[in-house]
Amino acid sequence: MSEVIAGKYLSVGTSLAIDANIRLDGGDLVVTDEAGGELSRAKIREAEISSRLGNVPRRIRFSDQSSFETEANDVVDEWFRSVGKSKGIVPTLEGKLRYVLPFTVVTILVTWTFVAYGLPALAGIAARNLPQDILDGAAESTLAFLDEIALEPTGLAQERRREIESLIRCTFPPKEALVYEVVFRRGDTLGANAFALPDGTIVFTDELVELLTSDEEILAVFAHELGHVAERHSLRQLLQDTSIAVLSYLVIGEATDTLQEALNALPAILMHDAYSREFESEADDYAIRLLREADISPQRLADALSRLSHEHGDEEGLKYLSSHPSSRERIRKAEEASQ
Amino acid sequence: MQIYIHKDGRKSGPFTLEQLREKVLQGSFTEEDYASHDHRTWVTIGEVPGYVPGIQSHQQHSDALDSESKGGDLSSVGASLDSQRKGLPSVPSTGKTIRNTTNVKKSKRHQLLFSGSGSEFFGIWIVNILLSIVTFGIYSAWAKVRTMNYFYGSTSLAFSSFAYVANPVAILKGRIIAFVFFLLYMLLSQVEPLLIIPLMLLIFFLAPVIIVRSLRFRMQNTEYRGLRFGFAGTTGESYGVFVGGLLLSYITAGILFPWFYMRQKQFFIGNVQFGGSQFLCMPRSGHFYACVGICFAMVFGAVLFFVLVAFAFEAITSVAGPLLTTLLPLCIYPMMGVVSAYWHANTTNHVITSSRLEDITFESRLTTGGLVGLWFINILLLVFTAGLATPWVMVRNARYRIGCTSVLADDLDSFVAEKVDTSSALGDELGEAFDIDLAI
Predict the structure, then answer these.
(1) Most buried one in A38, A94, B87, B125, CB count within 10 A?
(2) How far apart are CA A156 and CA A186, in angstroms?
(3) Last residue of a domain, which of A91, A124, A151?
């Protein structure tokens, strides 16, 4: 004869909850009211039990849809185990510190590994397999937008522009898989700057051309920007930022109530800079490789970088530079490569 | 013996019986506040075995105590409670119970209780996350059901808890659709930014359908005492409220926005069904306009205060610039917090107290200070643990909100299930595809 446990008998079709007791009698679950009268009798094999969740009350559901609610979790688990219905692995994992602690450590490690290595790798694979022209529309509208708010038409002499363009085309002939177009604009508030759009448009500002003293430095900056295009950094950044946003929503989204929703964006903002620093150093590596192939010393990249960092100042709040790895580190890497 | 007290979402204690009696006499607690020896089984203070009511006690509970105030052992609380529940039929007369609406008995105040704990939920949460990761998100649907069930199951009203009985496969389908849609949206917005506008319009015009379907899914899978909830809102009404209301408030330059907000809440709550009964939600739009007025006054007052301080500072030191430019932005976020806490507490309280289910009424006691404190600590917890405190934050939110709600009812037993309507099976299929949580 097994234990008798107290709970509520929930009848079918009404909100009536009757104080009742339940016991296991042979293979039958017997529900009795306070006076001992039998309310229900059903085979335990045919009854269903709600999954265990901490100490949340359990529901035993009978085949006639009536149910029994009780807080005696352990007794109920024992009964159902005796007929081969164990509570399952998940509730065991959730309820024991010896599983929860390692799970926490593993989750933190897995998350960190995924964010630092897995996601960039996956985004890289996705970027290589997505159509080449997927971001062309975005590139066009980005340039149009920048022309609208920041950039002005170039003031460079046409001969100078032709000279630079033909120099670039001679040194780094466009390949079928990597088409590029060089464009000049006056940087105005952006100052000496260069940037690449995902469709292969590479923009030089007049200020940059004037700042760099040798053509080889211009070639070095171009090679760096071409690196962004070749490695499809825009698309990868987009994929990575989006994934982080989704991930942080999945993890903390349920906890952020009303005003705290702003916190959901925090991880994506923090990771955006970390990822773009990685892309900058990848583009540097690409430039160093390209320069070597063209028999130009990577020292020219170091020169261009130090001129740029001198021009903007390391503390300059300019987005272009602030997202780059510390300039000194980048310059050192390029210098080492030139030896 | 240690007794803990649960009042307005906060736990205090432990107290001895004698201290408890003093607190009640002092007015810190009433005999209708809840007491427990183990944080799990809760009874009103008046029902604690061994508790001797003070002179000020005015509630009807005192009569129930006479019979069994000898024990003094709180572990017998459950048993003593059971014997209190008199007047219930001893045999369930299935489906035959008829609601006695002419009952003149005074309503009893039932405090909604939340008994979950952050540390207990942490185990569930971390297992959910790890399993979701290793199954590439597939387990997240099961995780959702477990999470919902933990919070529903930890919430009890009159010693019965709630249950969430959704099929995880339905949620998984919804999540896959939402994920694909989201990916398409993200890619499209980058590839062809112009396509965003028709896409946004599409979402705008589909939203009322999705809202109704997801509310129906949520409610139909919520159970209390073996009886399902339901949602009666129609797609047409949803279009009227969300599309019509939004357009109207734009056309009137926001003047109708408080009304629009009120209509949303009314739509969410007034369409909830429990068994065959439906909630009635009758908030007054005047209350929402008054709240908006006070919110504006708070913002205006705060800005005025800052400007005055800055002027005064300038008069003394002749440098006002830094004060205004550095201090004001720093204060905007906390100020927004206070204003939105005020708005949230007052509108929520009003909506809940102006709702009823048959002759059951509701009470909500959220306060601006309570919400500000809750949110402030939550933000600190989340930021300083890099998100690991999420389970505690979720439990804190639930405990505060649920602890501030009570139900005034003399009879919770006589709700009867409605006949199950199977004609809308196809529609529900679509509804199940979108499992979207809406804050009500």
Answers:
(1) B125
(2) 8
(3) A91
DSSP state of B12: E
| CB atoms inside a 10 Å sphere around CB B64 | 18
Residue A327 has pLDDT above 80, yes or no: no
Domain that holds residue A41: 4-91
Interchain CB distance below 8 Å, A14 and B88: no
* CB half-sphere exposure, A136, CA atoms < 13 A: 8
Interface check for B259 against chain A (CB to CB < 8 A): the answer is no
Whether residue B284 contacts residue B347, with contact meaning beta carbons closer than 8 Å, is answered with: no
Question: In which band, very low, low, confident or very high, does the pLDDT at B417 lie, cut at 50, 70 and 90?
Answer: confident
Nearest CA in chain A to B159: A8
Q: Is B131 on the interface with A (CB under 8 A)?
A: yes
Mutate to test the interface with B, among A10, A16, A243 (most CBs of B within 10 A): A16
Q: Does the residue A109 lie in any domain?
A: no
Domain count, chain A: 2
Q: Cα A150 to the chain's mean position, in Å?
A: 30
From chain B residues 336-365, the ones with a CB under 8 A of any chain A CB are: 336-337, 340-341, 344
Same domain flag for A223 and A278:
yes
Would you say residue A231 lies in a domain? yes
Q: Do B397 and A257 touch (CB under 8 A)?
A: yes
Six-digit token string for A192 = 């000496």
pLDDT reading at B289 higher than 50: yes
Question: Order of strands, edge to edge, in the sheet holding B3-7?
Answer: B10-15, B3-7, B34-36, B43-44
The tens digit of pLDDT for each residue in B17-67 reads 778 788 787 777 877 777 777 666 667 777 777 776 655 444 444 444 344
Q: Identity (one letter) of the amino acid at A244?
A: I
On average, the pLDDT of chain B sits at 77
Q: How many C-beta atoms lie closer than 10 Å to residue B221's C-beta?
A: 21
What is the per-residue pLDDT across A64-90, written as a single tens digit (0 to 9) for each?
A: 888 899 988 888 888 888 888 777 788
- CATH number reported for the structural domain that contains residue A33 in this entry: 2.30.29.30
pLDDT tens digits, one per residue of A229-248: 888 888 888 888 888 888 88
User: How do the domains of chain B map onto residue ranges?
Assistant: 1-67
Q: To the nearest whole angstrom, how far is the Cα of A124 from the nearest Cα of chain B?
A: 16
> How many CA atoms lie within 13 Å of B145's alpha carbon, on the beta-carbon side?
18
Q: Where does a domain end: A29, A58, A91?
A: A91
Q: Is residue A113 included in any domain, yes or no?
A: no
Residue A74, exposed/middle/buried by CB under 10 A (0-12, 13-18, 19+)? exposed
- pLDDT-based confidence at B70, cuts 50/70/90? very low
pTM for the predicted model, two decimal places: 0.74
Maximum CA pair distance of chain B? 83
CATH 3.30.1490 fits B1-67, yes or no: yes
Clarify whether residues A160 and A275 are in a common domain: yes
Sequence-distant (6+) residues with CB within 8 A of B48 are B3, B17, B20, B35, B74, B77
pLDDT digits (tens, 9 = 90+) for B244-268: 888 898 898 888 889 999 999 999 9
Asked if A39's CB is within 8 angstroms of B92's CB, the reply is: yes
Compute the distance between CA of residue B284 and CA of residue B350 in angstroms, rounded to an integer.
Answer: 8
CB contacts, 8 Å: A74 with chain B: none
d(Cα A21, Cα A29) in Å, to the nearest integer? 10
Hey, is the C-beta of A137 within 8 angstroms of any chain B C-beta? Answer: yes
A141 and B CB contact within 8 Å:
yes
Same domain, A152 and A38: no
Asked if A254 has any chain B CB less than 8 Å from its own CB, the reply is yes
Residues of A in contact with B129 (CB under 8 A): 107, 251
